[in-house]
Specification:
Length: about 425
Amino acid sequence: MAGAAAGERQSSTAAEASSPLRVAVLGFGTVGQSVVRILTERTELASELALVAIFNRNVARKRADWVAPSVTWTDDAAAVLTAKPDVIVETVGGVELPYGWVSAALAQGISVVTANKLLLAAHAPELLALAAASGARLRFEAAVAGGVPIIDAVRTGLAGDTFTRVVGILNGTCNYILSRMTGGDSMSDALGEAQRLGFAEADPTSDVDGHDAAAKLAVLVGVAFKRYIRTSEISTGSIRRIDAIDFRYAKRLGGTIRQISMAECDASGAVRAFVGPALVPDSSNYARNTGPQNLVTLTGRFGGNTTFSGQGAGGYPTAVAVVSDLVALARQTRSGAEPAWTPTSVSAAPMRPYYIRFSVKDRPGILASITVALARHGINVDAVLQESGFPKDHLPFVVTVEPCEATALAGAMREIDAEDFHAEPVLVMPVLPGE
């Protein structure tokens, strides 16, 4: 009898192992539809992944006749969880509403795959703790860099290293805009084209002001350094102030401009992080990365630099990352629970050189006022550049400074900003070394 019972248990386990994972998709927008399309058309995955339900608000208007009739359509998220699928795919977006669904699923032992970097940036420690407690899995390859498998690279491919820095281009929209501006487009024309092509939203604030990249950087800090930082602590700068003249000056300095996301972690576990426009050398990978492409370089203590690049936006690249996570769950090829992320405050930025562009109503003594203010804060001027052919009431010129503390520069800029010779606000960008 005991042998028979053991045999029955083995048969049951084998049957469970060979059964496909039952997948429910929450959200049938661009990414959700792309996920369902891949699951529908890639019939070879049917033995591993079975789509059982699709949730969407006002679901009647979303029904698609190309989806298998066996799939349940619903506008009741609670009903999806009650049906106990093996895994839910969250592509709704936002924070608080999906947080309720995802946390409820993880608490019940239902695994979750999400593309939602805002959710992770806001609630990763709680969600990781729920997953660890219930034995569920939380996967989020699609939350950063779209179809670029950066999360799995950190988790598995480079797991033997200790990471000290993550730096790259995490927002394809900004990279497309700045690439076009390098070629002579204005900010408004480049943004309009990005919107027309679907790279930018009607309201581009999250992209151009750095909030989208900051959320992605917070996720990368968690995965690479096992540290949790709040996006509100990440120093962010907008690309809105970048003008055609900045590309002319950048060219004179041997570089161009990109929106850069960077985080560093020292031996004590202190984390420094920023997102914003930066001047990068023409010889760098960042300068050569054009269009809506993402690029991420991981620096390891032992392995040095490893760079990843690829399409960072769009329904299908993101959906490929989601389905890859689903396949990994079905095959159990990736590590178990994501390690906890230790909450950490962001430390002050390291010393670095800066590019400072002024636009002034010209008069004698302006440059002297600027250099004196910088000197009062212990900042050395490296170079002064001035292009000819501009009106005296709106004259742009650039001062580059040697490496200095960000706090010292901020103090000097408060003094300089108070002067009455400005025709528009001053633009300050870090100058980064090549990679």
